[in-house]
Amino acid sequence: MLLLAFALAVTILFVVLRVLGNPVFALISVGATDAEIAAAAARLGVDRPIHEQFFAYIGQLLSFDLGQSFTNHLNVGDEIVRRLNVTLPLTLLSFTLSVLIAVPVGFFAAWKSRTWYGTTFSAVSQLGGAIPVFWVGILLVAVLSLGWRLFPAGGFPRTDWEDPGAALYSLALPVITIAIVAGSDLARYVRSATLDILGQQYLRAARAAGQSFATALWRHGVRNGVVPLISILAIQLSTTFVGAVIIERVFALPGLGDMLLVGIKEQDFPSVQGVLLFSTALVLVLGFIADVLQRIIDPRLRDSLSGNRRTKALA
Amino acid sequence: MTATILPTVPAPAPAPAASARRRRARRSVNLAVGAALFGLIAVIGLVSVFWTPFAYDDTTGDRLQPPSLEHWAGTDRLGRDLFTQLMIGARLALAVGFGSVLIAAIVGITLGLAAAVARRWVDDAISSLLDIAIAFPTLLLAMLIVAWRGASLDSAILAIGLAGAAVIARLTRITATRVLAMDYVTAARTSGTGTLGILRRHVLRNVWPTLIVPLALQFGGAVGAEASLSYLGLGSPPPNASWGRMLQEAQSTVLVAPTAAILPGILLVALIIGVNLLADGLRDVADPTSRSIR
Amino acid sequence: MSALLTVDRLGVRIDGPDPVDLVHAVDVALAPGERLGIIGESGSGKSLTALAVLGLLGHPLVAHGSARVATDAGEVEIVGTPSRRLDRVRGAIMSAVFQEPLSSLDPLMRVGKQVAWPLAHHRGLRGDALRRGVLDALADVQLSDPERIARSYIHEISGGQRQRVAIAIALAAGPRLLIADEPTTALDVTVQAGILELLQREVAERGMALIFISHDLPVVSGIADRVLVMRGGRQVELGDTAQILGAPGDPYTAELVAASRRLDDFLPRSTSGRDA
Question: I want to staple C160 with a disulfide (CB 3.0 to 4.6 A). Which of A156, A281, C133, C191 is the partner?
């Protein structure tokens, strides 16, 4: 299932980038001679028949060779790994912080849903899905970095992680920015899931047997609530990753997002392709893990692989 | 009175009248606010087609000026009038919203219906594709299409529309499958109506109410996605002034000329929240059985 | 003999700017071991009354009036007491079985584990004794192959088996009062009789009081000594079963009785005519 999805994605990427776009012209400055064009084409391999290109492409991928950047001739694979040093901590820290914000906030909003806290939350959290993350970044930089000088306005230390303090310091504001926006969005899902659980009859029946509210919630509510939340968290992680891509531009961080955007600008197809392949693989793997986790927790999902049954079971 | 097999009794709800009344009141407030916000921006956008205070590329103004009588929102770093740009941005945002929702609807519904009536394995294949497409972040998909076709308004609308089509397709497929299993469809089939006829007369009519709210919500997402694309430099080039691009240009001078960095953002938030509130308000009208995230 | 449960002008109201009364002034006293049936159509407030007696009304529902249950430590007032203080009364003194076992039981937890909790909490069983207690409890509700059932999840067993499990959980702590809210309504007709018999037997053997709620008059009259008729949140009539059936005082009650007779579907008082 996962392999099929990935194979599909790979093929689509190939079609879009190689067949539909024409990388040759990117390399050629205006006014090149025919001989130069032919030479460039030969170097890229685009003069060979399409199916040969495709197999060469697959072969490259299987040996984890993502090619070389058109612009600076660095190995794409290596470059991706290097830039993960920035993007990975950024994504994971933002994700963790957003979950730490969202779960208690969303839970309380659901628990006290009819009090002022709950209604205020409904209003405020509307912003979470509406506010663009880069705008929040711009504003926070303006106030906290340029204004109050609490955080650096951007950039990442040249020494990379050799000085973890400095590295974390430059990631602090980006992480906070993403966490605020992603967290308030996630809080709405947490609230919805919690409301769902709180209305469930097995909680009531458990209390009728003598369980306290806390016991009933812990024994029955948590596990049942976590199941749909896992899918949401997987999507949230992907969203945080995308947010990181955008935020890297706001804070001038040398991560994967930067690699992707520069690559698109300069039409550096191997780089673009490399980052997109990596992102696709990441998203698919996350989805797969979420799927597996759900199956482990919810026995009703184990009997079938079809999504239809799953929808019915959770109905 | 023999015992009948009843469906599950939900947790005892308060008497329908009172809470539904309260919910409806809240919904109509939402609807009013949403309509006001959306309406305001729609008017601005529409007006911009016929009139703007200045021409877009009129750089005669002083640079980075705060709001004044002459330039109602101030000027940007090239001396262009900001209010004009905001108005054009409104037009663009609306175009992106409607355009991508239209594409999402057409592509999504077609795909969803096709999957619902197709053979099992075709249906499974399409479902898997949709699952992947839905999991794939919209922005990355948009970047892919922009990388392929170059940055333009059309690319953005196409990309965002296609990304949204997947969700619509899945919803359509589920609802259509349910409708196809209904007795009146079987009756129609036995009386000779072909598949296409059934789709047209029964399925489509029962499916589209469920789609109203998701499509309306996609509007807001599309506007936000386009803003992000423009911010990253992948959106439509000038003279299409996108709010996202305005923010990108204003970023470097944010302390000197804060209005340029604040106003486009406020309008973005206003439009997106406005549309989302409208969508929420439509929920009661469109599909009373749907449950909201709110 | 003093009453086990005294309900005095019990009502349920939606709190808020314009409060709405859903249940008005229910008055009944239940003696130990007595079986009371509450009958009414949907929306008559019978389930809400039950939840009010259990102290499990959710916000914004609020009970008013009084409902007192007799414990070893004296009478406990349920109305107005914070729900957590009633935790020790629930399960041990009174417990409940609800209509739909598929949603009343935890779908992600094995049956044995769910039955184990009240045994561990109220009877202090641990380890092997607990394991045996679970199997005994399941056997007590006439589930064949208790080991397999204990290992199963609720979606792996039938509706009738699920309801038996729910009953086992409710009875685990040996309560003095069992409230059964439409326990057979969601079950197939052929299974209903078995559950009713089980309830009758358990109640008789343990000397428990029973409140049996239903919209189905024949079923209720087969199991209850007294019947309380509710309509639109109000108590319409209260009396011995025989009297309610033979000479109903209220016109609404008369209607119910007549309708049931017309369908010719009586469950005679002492035996069930159907296969379990």
Answer: C191
Residue C260 has its nearest CB partner, among B1, B8, B19, at B1
Interchain contact A218–C (C-beta under 8 A): no
C135 in Cβ contact with C146 (< 8 Å): yes
Backbone phi, psi, residue B240, to 5°: -80, 105
Instruction: Give the Å distances, CA to CA, from A60 to A2, A68, A74, A258.
Output: 20, 11, 16, 24
Work out the number of other CB atoms within 10 angstroms of the CB of residue C275: 7
The answer, yes or no, to whether residue B222 has pLDDT greater than 80, is yes
Nearest alpha-carbon partner for A279 in A80, A145, A49: A80
Alpha-helical runs (H) found in B118-203: 120-135, 138-149, 153-180, 183-190, 195-198
Per residue in C246-261, pLDDT (tens digit) is 888 888 888 888 887 7
Q: Can you give the pLDDT at residue B103?
A: 94
Is A250:A137 a contact under the CB 8 Å cutoff? yes
Tell which residue, A179, B79, A137, has the closest CA to residue B71.
Answer: B79
Answer yes or no: are the C-beta atoms of B106 and B172 closer than 8 Å: no
Dist CA A75 CA A88 (whole Å): 19
What value of ipTM does the predicted structure carry? 0.83
3-class DSSP state for residue C213?
Answer: strand
Q: Distance (Å, rounded) from C-alpha A211 to C-alpha A294?
A: 26
- Helices B258-286 and B16-50 pack at an angle, to 10 degrees, of 130
Mean pLDDT is lowest, of A174-188, B32-46, B236-250, for: B236-250
Which B residues, 192 through 251, put their C-beta within 8 Å of a C-beta on chain A? 220, 224, 227-228, 231-234, 244, 247, 250-251
CA distance B59 to chain A (A): 25
Which chains have at least 3 CB atom pairs separated by less than 8 Å from chain B? Answer: A, C
Torsion of CA A206, C11, A196, C18, to 10 degrees: -160
For C115, the closest chain A residue by CA position comes to A209
Contact A98, A182 (CB under 8 A): yes
CA distances from A205 to A11, B268, C61, C90, C166 (A): 52, 47, 18, 10, 9
Work out the number of other CB atoms within 10 angstroms of the CB of residue C189: 12
Distance CA B140, CA B112 (A): 23
Give the 3-state secondary structure of residue C141: coil
Helices (H), ranges, chain C: 46-54, 101-104, 111-123, 127-140, 146-151, 159-171, 189-206, 217-223, 241-246, 251-263
Distance CA B213, CA B38 (A): 16
Coil, helix or strand for C214?
A: strand
Torsion sign across C-alpha atoms C220, C226, C232, C233: negative
